[in-house]
Amino acid sequence: MKATARAHTNIALIKYWGKRDESLILPTNSNLSVTLDGFSTETTVHFREGLKEDSFLLNEQKVEGAALGKIAVFLDKVRALYGKEIYAQVQSVNHVPTAAGLASSASGLAALAAASSKAIGLSLDNMELSRLARQGSGSASRSIYGGFVEWQMGEREDGLDSYAVQIADQSHWDIRIAAVVLSKTVKKVSSREGMRRTVETSPFYAGWLEQTAKDLQEIKQAIIAKDFEKMGSVAEANCLRMHATTLGANPPFTYWQDTTMRVMQTVQNLREQGIPAFFTIDAGPNVKVLYLPEDEAKVKNSLQAMEDVEDIIISKPGSGISYM
Q1: Which domain CATH number covers 165?
Q2: What range does the domain containing 176 cover?
Q3: Average pLDDT in the 114-141 region?
Q4: Angle 104-119/126-134 helices, nearest 10 degrees?
Q5: Are 112 and 92 in contact (CB under 8 A)?
Q6: Residue 177: closest CA among 35, 275, 7
Q7: What is the pTM of this model?
Q8: What separation in angstroms does the CA of 279 have from each of 171, 178, 187, 209, 237?
Q9: 190 confidence band (pLDDT: 50, 70, 90)
Q10: Which residue has the higher pLDDT, 233 or 102?
Q11: Do 259 and 285 contact (CB within 8 A), yes or no?
């Protein structure tokens, strides 16, 4: 009863920001991402008779407390599907800075969902696997698939119609995504707390929801048509509107650093020079820059010339779940 799975992170081009159900992790809006080949998590799950509790090693370090509790709660869902109480040893290697806005939870929970369900003997299709992964981390529902992926918010209270679907696979479009790493430290306001505070207190939130539904339709059309400037401009505007809602929250907060702003300005300067480049930012300070392969040298040189940039990691659209 042992299996190993790999999942890649994703970056949302149309943001997921807010839940209509906290316990089931049901989003307030449908959203869309691209899976990245540059960041991944490999997880091995071994269910064993005789274990008294679950255990978790992350990057060869023993994890306890709340983080272990989150893993155990997720495995309870897998055990419920299996119909038997049996505990597991979980080992993960995370090739993503944890909790710094680079979607480590997406790859981590997607890999855990795939490895644990296979190890325990469940035969889940991708829709069922996406629905399961969602209950650990919302964005993990999208990392089941490669390429461009829409997480459909659904309408049912039980969440059975809330899962991700692939819009186009990783071979559809050769674009580049540069993750500009400015900070690898754990952020002060978690994504979950940030969402909750924004939904409950930001007067900008209703407008965000209304516009995001329109953004989603526009960007899907742009992806299918391979209209890069349209895709990039919609993604960048959607990102800015999401972060504006955090400034309207009570108390207000932001994930940006001063370097975040400078990277955004650098990308805007590239566009003024005729280079189509666009940025997007999740719940963290790090910036992701979208551009075309032929512009890689100019984009990378501009970003590397900046102070306080710790790293630049180039990705292409990546693949979905794989088993090792």
Answers
A1: 3.30.230.10
A2: 1-324
A3: 97
A4: 120
A5: yes
A6: 35
A7: 0.94
A8: 22, 9, 20, 20, 9
A9: confident
A10: 233
A11: yes
- Burial (CB < 10 A; 0-12, 13-18, 19+), residue 307, is exposed
Helix/strand/coil percent split, the chain, to 5: 40, 25, 35
What is the amino acid identity at position 238? N
Q: Please enumerate in sequence order all residues whose Cβ is within 8 A of that of 126, keeping only pairs 6 or more positions apart, or say none.
A: 144, 145, 320, 321
The single-letter code of the amino acid at 244 is A
The string of DSSP codes covering 118-176 is HHTT----HHHHHHHHHTT-GGGGGGGS-SEEEE---S-TT-TT--EEEEE-TTS---E
**Is pLDDT of 99 > 80?**
no
Structural domains in the chain (count): 1
- Which residues in 160-178 are b (16+ Cβ under 10 Å) and which e? eebbbebbbbbebbebbbb
Q: What is the pLDDT of residues 282-310, one digit of tens each?
A: 988 999 999 999 999 999 999 999 988 98
The DSSP 8-state label assigned to residue 317 in this structure reads B
Residues 12-48 pLDDT 10s? 999 999 999 999 999 999 999 999 998 899 999 999 9
**Cα(247)–Cα(2) distance, integer angstroms:** 46
> Which DSSP state fits 186?
P
